[in-house]
C-alpha cells in the first residue's frame, strides 16, 4: 500500500503532527541561494515556511504557496513571531502547483523542496519553470530515487539529472544537477543519511 500525496493527505498530516517551530531552512537552498541578489521569490510546497522565512530574512519578497491550508496557517503563525519585518515580506497563498501553475507572475527565484506532487514530477517542473523570469533561477530539491523507502510512493522521489533533461538548453543553463548526501537531523532527520537531488538552473530568456 503506497501513500497518495493529494491535498487531503497533506491537510491531515499538518493537522495531526503538531510542531512548535518550522525547523531549519534547507541547507542546499542556503548554500546555493546565499550568493544571489534578493528579488522576488516563489516557494512552492512551503510547508511550515522555514525556507520562505529564511529567504525573507535575506531580503527576498516571497510568495509562499502550499496545497494545504493547514500548513499555511502554521507557517503564518511561525512568521508572525519573527522580528525584522520577515512576516511583511511573505505572502502566503494556497495553490496546487501541479494543476493550476503559478499564474501570469514571473519570479527571480522559483524554489521547491521535497514537494511530493500527485503525478509525475515533470508536470510540476513545467509549472515551476514557467514561473521563472528571464535571468531568474529555478531551484528544486527532492529525495533521490535510489534511496526510496519501501512503502512510499514513487512521486516522492526525483533525480535532478532526469529533471534537467526537461529544460530546453536554448532557454536554460543548468548550473547544478546532482545528488548530494548529508546527515539527517532536525528538519527532516531520523538519524540517518539523506540523499538530496539538487537542480539549479538559470533561465536565459
Ligand atoms: C514533504 S513536505 C515539504 C515541505 C517543505 N518544503 C520542507 O522542505 O520542509 C511537501 C509539501 O508540499 C506540499 N504540496 C504537495 N503537493 C503540492 C502541490 N501540488 N502544490 C503545492 N504544494 C504541494 C505539501 O502540502 C507539503 O507542505
Automatic annotation (TrEMBL):
The identity of this protein, by name, is Methyltransferase domain-containing protein
Q: Which GO molecular function annotation, any one, does this entry have?
A: methyltransferase activity
Question: Methyltransferase domain spans which residues?
Answer: 42-136
Record has Transferase as a keyword: yes
What keywords sit in the KW lines?
Methyltransferase, S-adenosyl-L-methionine, Transferase
Q: Name one GO biological process term.
A: methylation
PANTHER family under this entry?
METHYLTRANSFERASE, UBIQUINONE BIOSYNTHESIS O-METHYLTRANSFERASE, MITOCHONDRIAL
Which domain of life does this protein belong to?
Answer: Bacteria
* Protein species of origin: Actinopolyspora xinjiangensis
Q: Does S-adenosyl-L-methionine appear among the keywords?
A: yes
Mind telling me which InterPro entries this protein's record contains? Methyltransf_25, SAM-dependent_MTases_sf
State the Gene3D superfamilies in the record.
Answer: Vaccinia Virus protein VP39 (3.40.50.150)
